[in-house]
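The authors assume throughout that readers already know how a fold can be written as discrete tokens. For illustration, here is how one protein appears when written out as sequence plus structure tokens.
>
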Amino acid sequence: MLLIDKIAYENRLIELSPKIKSAFYLFLLIICFLTTPMIQGIISLIIGLATIYVTKVKVTRYFKWLLIPAPFLAISILTILFSISSQSSAFIFKIPVFNNYLGITSTSLTIGTKLFFRSFSCLICTYFFILTVPFHQILVVMKQARFPILLIELTMLMYRFIFIFADEFLIIKRAQEMRFGYRGLKNSYHSLGLMIKILFFQSFDRFNKMILSLEIKFFDGDFPL
């Protein structure tokens, strides 16, 4: 069982109806999309503290999880903040680049600030949802909300392959570390390349074994939910 699943099954709100938590999550997302950065920041603070209390997660671990999508968010914001122009009057901060200027305008700063607070608040709310609602309850809510069966089954299979991928990754990485595969930059690159290669073949092998086990159990194409 993944740590996230373990936390979701042991949180303080496990007895609360998943439909109520799902509706609350959707309500929070709507609020985060429609309100100002100040309100989004307040929501982030409140929901973040509530998540730490409800899930009994250590503060350091929670912040480490928040840092996982940080590079993607940073790249998105930087591409909006910086622009290139031949005129320097529009920039509040600029760097000369050949015959042009690379910098930040007041408009791009405003848009970038809104994007950061909106994305961060939605991320905080999403963490609250996935850490308080176990995956099987999410599937039940999707079925009750009349999501397409194909979408539900794809979601379930994708989630299953997360376990397969994570399990294979940990086994390979542990074996490489025992053989000092990550000592030095050259060995690290070599071990990383081998890991990617092995993961690719091992994932296909585990997939074929899963298909075989389903056929043995007379799988007819539908997963009972």
